[in-house]
Design goal:
By secondary structure, this protein is of the alpha/beta class. It is 29% helix and 31% strand. The strands form four sheets. It has a six-stranded mixed β-sheet with strand order 7-12-14-15-16-13. Strands 2-6-5-4-17 form a five-stranded mixed β-sheet, sandwiched between helices. The chain has a four-stranded antiparallel β-sheet with strand order 9-10-8-11. Helix 1 packs across helix 11 and helix 6 packs antiparallel against helix 7. It holds the Pfam family DUF34_NIF3. This is GTP cyclohydrolase 1 type 2 homolog. Keywords: Metal-binding.
């Protein structure tokens, strides 16, 4: 059985929820339809003509890419233009294109976390805070016979996380009373008669971002026809997500040694470097994509170096005077998203027992040549 397009995308949006994207970012389905079976998915950094040809050879039904193919509203679709030809080719071969951009950058376990992990950054924090999850307290009353089943469902859906602790809950024994009405089909008791039932009050913490998922899991596991539960907004804040990552390296290295690590881990032959190559680096920052405007964020967070792309001349001069080093391996290092996204989707599809295949694009979409 093959997964439907929307099923594949639901897995992708578990990894990179759309609400994490910066305002006006061009994400989501950009071309084609998801109302079809997906036999093969191609994961790419960019959707170039070479990548589309690769998708055609593979007989892919869907391309999931990081960079958008439609940046601004189209006034016309001229198939004589290079992009028009690209759109035409995709439509003729019924290949849908879905974009996961800054939401994949911001997401926990997304591009910036993969980059940080690759060079050995530990105890990471965002360079720029964008989203703080609000917390709710979920309270539900369940008969003792189904206490563990409902608790497992709630915690299994992601509730109960406090800091580095998971599956946190508080459970109190008590008695519930109710009278089933004439139109009811009660799990316990009889219509019109007062019932007094041994129940357990379950309390736990639920982030706003997953509260609907948790409540649905609870309702599915709960035996009652009408479930008594409450959600209370809390002043306590949940996790904060944002662009970039910063943290201490697993062990201090010289800047020139970190350059070698970056070249090896991101598979680049050359990088641009700002700073003394013999400087010791203890704390590092990373940001996928264009990072010029985040150099000061890294400096403010105490980083000795920032690894990012597309640094302009004046930003490099300012960084040199401010005393922060820069390693610029180029924008294309975001290609780290290909194998990691493939791994995520494969695991989700295999767990769902779908035969849909996921492939990483083998095309090099780096537009620059070093001569």
């Amino acid at each position: 059985m093959y997964a439907k397009g929307q099923t594949v995308i639901s897995y992708m949006e578990e990894l990179a929820p759309k609400h994490l994207a910066v305002p006006d970012d061009r994400i989501g389905l950009q071309l084609g339809t998801l109302a079809k079976e997906i036999k093969k998915v191609l994961v790419a950094l960019d959707v170039t003509d070479e990548v589309v040809e690769e998708a055609i050879r593979l007989e892919a039904d869907l391309i999931i890419a990081h960079h958008a193919i439609i940046f601004r509203p189209l006034k016309s679709l001229n198939t004589d233009s290079p992009m028009g030809k690209l759109y035409e080719k995709l439509i003729k071969h019924d290949i849908a294109v879905y974009i996961s951009h800054t939401n994949l950058d911001v997401a926990e376990g997304g591009i910036n976390d993969w980059m940080a992990e690759a060079i050995g950054i530990q105890d990471v924090a965002p360079l720029e805070d964008l989203h703080t999850d609000h917390l709710y307290k979920l309270v539900v009353f369940v008969p003792k016979s189904h206490h563990q089943k409902v608790l497992d469902a709630i915690l299994g859906a992601g509730a109960g996380a406090i800091g580095d602790y998971s599956h946190c809950s508080f459970n109190i024994d008590g008695y519930g009373t109710f009278v089933p009405g004439d139109a009811t089909k009660p799990f316990i008791g009889k219509q019109g008669q007062m019932e007094r039932v041994e129940e357990v009050r379950i309390e736990t913490i639920v982030p706003h971002s997953i509260w609907n998922k948790v409540v649905q899991a609870m309702l599915k596991a709960h035996p009652y026809e009408e479930v008594a539960y409450d959600l209370y907004h809390m002043d306590m804040k949940g996790r904060t997500l944002g662009l970039g990552r910063v943290g201490k390296l697993s062990e201090p290295v010289l800047l020139k040694e970190l350059v070698d690590i970056v070249k090896k881990q991101f598979e680049v032959k050359q990088v641009r470097v700002v700073g003394d190559l013999n400087r010791q680096i203890k704390k590092a920052a990373v940001l996928g994509g264009s990072g010029s405007r985040y150099v000061n964020h890294a400096l403010f967070r105490g980083a000795d170096v920032i690894v990012t792309g597309d640094i302009d001349y004046h930003t490099a001069q300012d960084a040199l005077m401010a005393g922060i080093a820069i390693i610029d391996p180029g924008h294309n290092i975001e290609k780290i998203m290909k194998p990691n996204t493939v791994k995520w989707l494969k695991e989700k599809l295999e767990k769902g027992r779908y035969a849909t295949e996921v492939h990483a694009s083998e095309m090099n979409t780096e537009p620059f040549q070093f001569v």
